[in-house]
Amino acid sequence: MIKYFDFYFDFVSPYSFLAHKEIKLIEKKKIIKVRYKPILLGGLHNLHGIKAPAFIPAKAKHMIRDCKLIAEQNKIKFKFNSYFPIRSLNLMRGVLVAEEDNFKSYYIESIFNAIWQDGLNMNDESIVQKVLKNLNINSKTFILRSTSSSIKDSLKKRTEEAYEKGVFGAPTFVSNNKVFWGQDRIQFAINEANK
Fold first, then answer.
1. Would 15 disulfide with which of 6, 107, 183, 189, CB 3.0-4.6 Å?
2. How confident is the model at residue 46 (pLDDT cuts 50, 70, 90)?
3. Please, are residues 151 and 96 in contact by the beta-carbon 8 Å criterion?
């Protein structure tokens, strides 16, 4: 039986990007299966009544330096996005549309790379449309679907479910109902899944 753990993420989080890149390497080695769980990080923070590190100047400054150190150590191509924070609501809703159409992993990889490798301004609708077009996606149809009430409700429900499990930030890994927060906790989630 293939072991697995859940990965709660939001594109706005550079640490989620770094975790995603590590997960791709782990999955190539067929060590474990990872189930991607999209959430809206801002909504999750609101549910917990906490402030994101990006809005605390000392933490924000540290986060940029920290992400660059992690990327260098793990040989991950990374560029802190100068348009940060990226408004990820519609991008995260897009994950659910991509999930319905069976190209979720391709979409996730492309959006993460657009933000954290290419440094694109994904707050700009015209740039988002160009990225979608490069994926051979009809951007108008895709965006229309991502704003449907069923997709909106699904992302909200998934965020609330994450909150109920004790998830409070991204990335978070849940393995055997145990919560591991932070990009540097992947191995803990693997170890727990293999028990």
1. 183
2. very high
3. yes
Domain span at residue 32 reads 4-193
Q: What is the pLDDT of residue 33?
A: 92
Half-sphere exposure of 4 (CA within 13 A, CB side): 9
The distance of Cα 172 from the centroid of its chain, to the nearest Å, equals 10
DSSP state of 174: E
Specify whether the CB–CB gap between 4 and 193 falls below 8 A: yes
Mean pLDDT for 118-145 is 95
Is the whole model's pTM more than 0.90, yes or no? Answer: yes
Question: What does the pLDDT read at residue 57?
Answer: 85
Q: Which residues pair with 179 in a beta bridge?
A: 174
For residue 181, the cross-strand partners are 172
CATH number at residue 140: 3.40.30.10
Domain count of the fold of the chain: 1
Would you give the distance in Å from CA 105 to the centre of its chain? 11
Task: Please give the pLDDT value at position 60.
Answer: 83
**Residue partners of 87: CB distance under 8 A and separation at least 6:** 12, 122, 123
Any idea which residue has 């693997």 for tokens?
Answer: 190
pLDDT of residue 1: 66
